[in-house]
Amino acid sequence: MFGIVARRSGRFAMVVGALTALAGCNNAAPASEEKPAEPPAATQQETPHRGCATIEPSADEREAIDAFVRTQKHEMRAVGSVTVPVYFHVINKGAGLANGDIPDSQITAQMNVLNAAYSGTPFKFVLQGTDRTTNATWFNLSQGGSAEKKMKAALRKGGKESLNLYSANLGGGLLGWATFPSSYASQPSMDGVAFLYTSVPGGTAAPYNEGDTITHEVGHWVGLYHTFQGGCTGTGDSVSDTPPEASAAFGCPAGRDTCSGGGVDPIYNFMDYTDDNCMNSFTAGQVTRADSLMATYR
């Protein structure tokens, strides 16, 4: 079931069809949130791992969102027909790359990776502006804290249609977190994606330094859950063409199959936890769902 195959970052990105769900990088914040499988133990807390702190909707909220989306009559929009304005906020603790002040060349490379990954979807991401803020407190960022709230209140630009990206030095070895389309109405100032500054193309967060942290987090921003959402039972990630997966995959374990029936685990999907050079695709169902959610909420 192949769709469009796009060349990006020296490898192929197979984008099959149309983008979906209302996903979240699971973290331990709210009681309603499931915690994903733990990544391999890191030698230091600062060592990045494929994990994110996106707070996903509760089970009741998910059900209500899915029910609402089913009532909407939405015709799939054409590939590249939806322009998403992007505002890039570089948070640093001083001058120089070591202090988080990533250069324009890496921002351009990141935008290229993002657009290549979404090349078979309706979404085209266009950089509207970059700003740089020196603030040591904001630089050492934790999810949901006062620093994040103050940072976003001061810097966020555009409306619900605009993607705001915040690069910083995230705590706990996390690579990033995002907000969902349905969350904008209640917390517009918090909307956007925060990510580890060393995860951009050419960064030092190997094997997560080819730019797919943002691809993954933007997947949540357009409405997608993790492929391992719900494990082997229930509605999973609310997408019918992503095989069920018992837990997050790390590295690139070809042939992994953790749920009986439905096919091997979708380790190459952007919404799993594999290495950047392993993930390369969205499914048709994911693209369809994301387009529907974006049309409904953004």
Number of alpha- plus pi-helical segments: 6
User: Percent helix among the residues?
Assistant: 10-25%
Overall geometry comes to globular
Rg, rounded, reads 17 Å
Q: Approximately how much beta-strand content do the residues carry?
A: 15-25%
| Sheet having the most strands | 6 strands, mixed
Low-confidence stretches: 1-45
Compact description:
With 298 residues, the chain is of the alpha/beta class. It has 6 helices and 9 strands.
Tell me what you see in this structure:
By secondary structure, the protein is an alpha/beta fold. The chain contains 6 helices and 9 strands, in the order ββαβαβαβαβββαβα. The strands form 2 sheets. Strands 3, 4, 5, 6, 7 and 8 form a 6-stranded mixed beta sheet that branches. Strands 1-2-9 form a 3-stranded mixed beta sheet. The protein is globular and about 50 Å long.
Which features would summarize this protein structure in a list?
alpha/beta; six-stranded mixed β-sheet; globular; disordered N terminus
